[in-house]
Structure formats: C-alpha cells, structure tokens
Amino acid sequence: MIRVLLFSLIFIFSTNLSAAKFATPTLRVQDSVDKVITILKDQSLDRETRWDRIGAVIDDCFDFRSMSQSVLATNWEKATPEERERFVEYFSQYLENTYRTKIESYSDQQVKYLKETINGKRAEVETTIVTDTMEIPVNYKLKNNDGEWYAYDVVIEGVSLVNNYRSTFSTIVKNEGMDGLLNDIQRRIDNYKQTEGTTTQTQ
User: Is 131 in a helix, a strand, or coil?
Assistant: First the structure.
C-alpha cells in the first residue's frame, strides 16, 4: 500500500503555475506529472535542493485545509480554531515527511489518463500507474477554489488516503482527545527529523 501511494503522490504534485491556466482537472494532473518528474530527474540538483522544490510544490498543489477537515470529520467541528490550524500545519508536514524518501525513489513509472468527472466545483480524474509488473488504478479528487483546482484526496485501488488517516486519527482522538492527536503527530515529525539528521550525517 505504501509503495503504491508513493507512485500516486508523485503524479498529483504540481508547480507554482496557477491551476486556472488549465482548462480541465486532467490537464492540471498531466502538467503535474511532467513538472515533478523533471525535478526528480534533474541530476544537477542536490538532495536538499530537490526536496525544497518538491516541498514547495506540495504546498501549492494540495488543499490541506479541506483534506484536514475531511480527515478529522466530526472532530473538526469539535476542535477549537487554534487546534484546527495546528492540525493543518502538522498534518501537511507529516505527509511530506512520511513520503519524502519514497517520492525520491521514483524510477520511470508511467501514467495513463482514463477519465475525468466534474460535478460542480468537485472533480475526479481516473488514472492508472503502470509499473514493470502491474497496472495500479489511482483516482485523484480535486476541488475548485476560486477557479483553481487543488487536490484533496487520492484513492488507490479503491482505498482513500483521507479515509485511511481518518480511521487512524479518530481512534487517537477518541482515546486521547485533540491534544493527544496533535502531540502524536508532533512526535512523529520530531522522530523523522532525528532519523533524517542521523542519515544525513552518515552519508
């Protein structure tokens, strides 16, 4: 599941170009593929520079607030404004940290664009990720914010990224409250930074 998610996240990230420049959500995703693969294949970039550019791309592409609201579900309404802002910040950083090394291991997978469905300000782009051994169905859910398309969920082989985290986080909130969830995500971020720092020093 994690390996499949790697491929899907690669193909949804985009550049700083306004989504309004693209007539359809599919063109938005197609542009994302080309631009991110260009960054990943640029051998003139060192690891940190490459990731800084990808990190900026992630921030521009995803509607993390909408994603966070969907992940928390009813707990979003119960959270205070400060807790909501902290969750959006922590969750976006956690996603970037979680998939960094997996994104960097990209190796020439291909994507086929199959179908797009637009329903008002929501859209879904159906694709297939083609590897050496299999074809993996991946659907991207996008939201139109003031004329620009932003991703807010990725569905891989029928499994939603948002639903996956919603199940995990709701259990933590039930047992430990929002403070417990925020502390849990902060610990995960801190653990990643320590591990990454150790890895960098040994390279």
Answer: coil
**203: closest CA among 37, 38, 46?**
46
CB atoms within 10 A of CB 74: 9
Q: Which two tokens stand for residue 12?
A: 């949804």
Look-up of token digits 């879904």: 124
Q: CA-CA distance, 94 to 140, in Å (whole number)?
A: 20
Which residues have a Cβ under 8 Å from the Cβ of 115 and sit 6 or more positions away? 125, 126
| For the chain, domain boundaries | 2-202
In DSSP terms, which residues pair with 127 in a beta bridge?
113, 138
157's tokens: 């082989």
Read off the pTM. Answer: 0.76
Name the CATH superfamily for 2-202.
Answer: Tgt2/MlaC (3.10.450.710)
Residues in the chain: 203
**pLDDT tens over the chain, length 203 residues:** 544 455 555 555 443 444 446 678 888 877 776 777 788 888 899 888 988 887 777 777 788 999 999 999 999 999 999 999 999 999 998 888 877 766 666 667 788 899 999 999 999 999 888 878 888 888 989 999 888 888 898 888 898 889 999 999 999 999 999 999 999 999 999 998 887 765 555 55
25 neighbors 125 (Cβ within 8 angstroms): yes
Q: Is the dihedral of CA 183, 177, 169, 33 positive or negative?
A: negative
Residue type for position 99 = Y
